[in-house]
Design a protein that fits this description.
Blueprint: H1 13-42, H2 48-54, H3 61-72, H4 78-107, H5 114-145, E1 166-170, E2 176-180, E3 184-190, E4 193-198, E5 202-205, H6 209-215, E6 221-225, E7 228-231, E8 235-240, E9 246-250, E10 255-258, H7 260-278
Antiparallel strand pairs: 1-2, 3-4, 3-7, 4-5, 6-7, 8-9, 9-10
Length: 279
């Protein structure tokens, strides 16, 4: 069954790298070109190595934006997210003069003053810095709040994947029986085994959580923690712990922790499956 599809803005890592490299190269070359143009127009001197060194302003964006992206993945309050934006901008502002000082210290006969470069940066690039980080902040925050569904191409000749509908278990009397996956509340890690928490009792399985995650219906069975996979049909409620994590309650009143790294996937699928059940 093909899900509702939205336009896929998610690029592969290789595409992202190539796009970033092209954009960075364009900005560096444009800055050097503008320096040359202004020097010719004003009858001043132009030093290529110096122009390239000061163009390093653009080289700080990829790692700092990546850091911004990682920080915004956390489930944080609005005040904290805005604080992150301010700190990210300050990080760039204080890093650039330090980078110029270091490069001039290593490769030049004279060293550029940190405070002189800081003043130059604020004057020449202050507004640019605010705009770029403000835009990336707004974009990343929107993506986090409204995750983009990846478009999957489905070949007609390829059959749909068959998920596990039942699992063979062994009880204490060594009797094997098949239990329906719909009747399972959740799976928990008990290395090197997995506990299967059934409506009536608990079983032990030699399967791994990784195997179960790959072979169960991922619209119904969702990873909520490195140690848990839950049956969404057995979840009755969830609430925040106010620290980024959440607690969910199952039909038998079992309470499990949802790690913040898995929450958005859980929430999206939980709301989807219960919305479908209401129809």
């Amino acid at each position: 069954m093909i899900r509702d599809l939205t336009y896929n803005f998610v690029l592969s890592r290789q595409e992202k790298f190539i796009l970033s490299l092209l954009l960075l190269s364009f900005l560096l070359l444009s800055t050097v070109g503008l320096d040359l143009f202004y020097a010719k127009m004003n009858g001043g001197s132009f030093y290529l190595s110096e122009s390239i060194m000061f163009s390093s302003f653009w080289l700080l964006f990829p790692p700092i934006i990546y850091l911004q992206q990682q920080l915004l993945k956390q489930n944080l309050k609005i005040f904290t997210t805005i604080s992150i934006l301010v700190l990210i901008i300050l990080l760039h502002i204080v890093s650039y003069p330090a980078l110029i000082w270091l490069l001039s210290k290593l490769f030049y006969y004279h060293t550029y003053s940190y405070w002189q470069t800081l003043n130059y940066e604020i004057t020449e690039y202050g507004l640019t810095t605010l705009i770029i980080y403000g835009f990336t902040f707004a974009f990343l925050y929107r993506i986090k709040s409204n995750p983009i569904t990846t478009v999957y191409s489905v070949e007609k000749e390829n059959p749909e994947k068959e998920f596990l509908n039942s699992i063979i278990v062994t009880d204490k009397s060594n009797r094997k029986s098949a239990i329906k996956t719909d009747d399972i509340l959740y799976f928990s890690s008990a290395s090197p085994y997995v506990n299967i928490h059934h409506r009536n009792k608990k079983y032990l399985s030699s399967k791994t959580l990784k195997f179960l995650e790959a072979n169960l219906n991922n619209n119904q069975f969702v990873r909520i923690h490195k140690s848990y996979i839950v049956n969404l049909k057995m979840v009755v409620s969830f609430k925040s712990r106010l620290n980024g994590d959440y607690d969910l309650t199952l039909v038998d009143n079992t309470v499990l922790r949802i790690s913040r790294n898995y929450f958005f996937d859980f929430k999206q699928k939980f709301e989807s499956i219960h919305r479908l059940n209401q129809n």
